[in-house]
């Protein structure tokens, strides 16, 4: 409330100071005698410094205020001060006339060589009257200066109030159905009429200056140049760029993206050049006033935005050349939406021109609010019309048996956002929040410009990089021949450059959204009020600046989007073109994601203004929590980072740990997922993979070993059996030739001869299947050769005639 108390103090000071001046204004219409009496009552030597002090106080208050209500009160006080200063100056005029008359009676001082002498009393009287006249002139000049300063300050306050309307979204200016909103159209204030008339006269004078003899020919040339550029320049420039794209660029997607960008660029360039010609036609003379020159410069800047709106719309729809159309839009929908881009550009241009005209003419706030309300109304209605017409055309296509275009989720979300914003604009106008409606309408237009430009430029960058490094094109062949590199590396370079280009475009788009032409600080003010309402002053201990909260949130959203886009690009575009194995790719992607999220969070907190020296209590609480309950989580987190950096195991490895054998499918921050042979998954904490013995069967491209141990009777031919086993292993397609299969003599027992045959396979995962095939072949071959495996020895112990007898069943047979 300190600002309110300061305002009250200034107001009271002004009232105390200006009360005598109000009385002076009431008496200024009386006779000269009454004016003289008033001059005695009001001492200009005392009142003028007070007025100057009040004017300085008002200037200080204006520099610190941005509220519409307070600025309005300060403006009224400034106008009152200007009136009182003028009244005081007029009240001093009779005294000046009286002194001038008295000096005329005394006459001028005699010359020294004239021989005329006057009395000392006359000389003293003349000197006294001359000093009084000089003092009175200074006081009148000071009153005029205060009046002029007050009028200039009032103009500045009006401009500040007009700018405040763009930021104070919570200001209710009256519903569009109310008489107050439409009052400027039917009952314009007298001061607005005079200001608008004066500025129109300035425009007429500017036009007259440009048409004076000696300047008429140049003006005609500039006007003709602007008309030619606007009427024929776009068509021929577009045809020339189309010829360049078709005949000079290689076949492929690059042509389509180049032609779409050419359509947008030619529309923008011709519109800006045409308005620049018009500006030069009328404002090239030095006698043109600054207000008219500023107005013309605003129109040229406005033509850039309108050119972008119209150009991007034509590039997206491409109704004349459907094959050039970048987005997936059916031809009936494109034809239905064709009028909306130029209509939106025209609406923005007309009403932004009216707003610029009001600024240049210093029109009242009510007139500005009226123009803003009409702008928001028409833009909101246009947004709803775009959504409803496109849906109606798609439904008609379905009814006629045609198939509309397949829309992605992102396109559906964009259309839903346009519809909701259009409804919000109309709703806010109905309830009276004209400033909020204007903000939403212009932000909708600006977001469309930013994202439309990003879409076309990103397509152009990706297609350009792919075409530049493609070996099917001359440029790619020359690069490959010059550097003598494999085609795979050219694909990597194309993916890398396109990724860098898209990242740069994302950053530019984010900065454009944050610092756009139609953006304002109003959302930040709303966040400030919400934080003050819910958080009180508790956040002051952390030194968080509420004005940075929205920027921090936008940074967080953009950072997460960039990380996910980079992750998808690495996973699907860049890393598959490298020689890295799948495990190394997944490890790099996971490590990059973890580091990226940490950096994004730190950057978000930094933008928010969070000071780490104020978080000692949080660090202390975390220390206690880690000591008691979070140590396992921290240990697993650190172990996960070690696994991702040292890579003792990686995604795709076949590992065995604590009786569990399976393939590693994912290494998370806390735990690792191991998939078993039955497709079930075991979650193993990362710390166990670091602290326990782990068998990595596939590390270092390890080969699998298929070993089969068989026992044969003692009467077999060992050489024959050995050769049979080697033949079976050699004929199996899974067994590697190097190292060669081998048969080793393992043991000789009374039950038979034990032989072990060993062969290598490519990977440990083939061991089980290879052993199964080998056993089938070995048993089939042994039976065919009449060779039997050794039967296990069994003994039967019986009691006969009171004694134990051991009998071998084989002998009995």
Keywords:
single chain, 813 residues, alpha+beta, 5 domains, three-stranded antiparallel sheet, transmembrane helix, membrane, transmembrane, coiled coil, mechanosensitive monoatomic ion channel activity
Mean pLDDT: 77
Strand portion, in percent? 5-15%
Q: Describe the main β-sheet briefly.
A: 5 strands, antiparallel
Number of strands: 10
Stretches with pLDDT under 50, minimum 5 residues = 1-40, 517-544
What structural category arises from helix and sheet content? Answer: alpha+beta
| Rg result | 45 Å
Tell me the span between the first and last alpha carbons.
Answer: 116 Å
DSSP helical segment count: 25
Tell me, what's the shape? elongated
Tally of individual domains: 5
Report the helical percentage. Answer: 55-70%
Strand order of the largest sheet: 4-3-2-1-5
How is this structure best summarized?
The chain crosses the membrane at residues 215-237, 258-278, 298-317, 329-349, 369-388, 409-433, 445-469, 489-514, 544-563, 584-609. Helices cover 69% and strands 8% of the residues. With 813 residues, it is an alpha+beta fold.
